[in-house]
Amino acid sequence: MRHTDAALKQYYAARAREYERIYAKPERQADLARLRALLPPMFADRRVLEVACGTGYWTQFLARAAQSIVAVDANPETLEVAAGKSWPAGRVHFRTADAYSLPAELGMFDAVFAGFWWSHVPVRDRSRFLSGLDRRLVPGATVVLLDNLLVAGSSTPISHRDDAGNTYQVRRLDDGSEHVVLKNFPSESELNADISVFGRSPRFIALEYYWLYSYEKAAAA
After folding, report:
1. Domain residue spans of the chain
2. Three-state SS letters, 191-220
3. What's the pLDDT tens digit per position in 34-68?
4. 189 to each of 53, 88, 197, how far by Cα in Å?
5. pTM above 0.90, yes or no
6. CATH no., domain 2-149+186-217
7. pLDDT digit string (tens) for 79-88?
8. Taken in order 158, 161, 166, 170, is the CA torsion positive or negative?
9. Residue 86: HSE in the Cβ half-sphere, 13 Å Cα cutoff
């Protein structure tokens, strides 16, 4: 899956300056307004690690309530956009980091947010990602995942599925380039199965265009 990771990184680097346009879709505004209300209280007074923060679109809402945020992404191009925004002094820090290999120097956290990242994790790498994430969390930490539902007429259609069960989309950018992007759409039961070793008290909220999933890190045995 290393080729998939490289292709995804290349795609988001090229998309950095047009990334947030997706949040202007008229049909999604009610869902987005609800998410903007739901998310900040989930991170109130928490030390937050944001994985795959991209251009910092969701970081701005977490920052309303979080004690501090370390937001990481693999792409300098998207982080450059994020860092150019206005942030609460001393509370938001951006770092380049691999989501599958989160360095110990990032510190320990009592909350994690990953928006629109889980859908890009290959099926075979989900446990690897969760295991690395778990090492950066204190017992009882809250993990929140936000991602897309597949909605005909609003979502980019699925182009194909591989033998491992991953699905893909073909996306076109402003420069005319086309990119094959891994994009999975897991069910609630799939999410529960994937986090069962790492978490407890799962909660799944399905909106019209998005889903929100949270759990607590399981106590050490």
Report:
1. 2-149+186-217
2. HHHHHCCCEEEEEEEECCCEEEEEEEECCC
3. 999 999 999 999 999 999 999 999 999 999 999 99
4. 26, 38, 14
5. yes
6. 3.40.50.150
7. 999 999 999 9
8. negative
9. 0
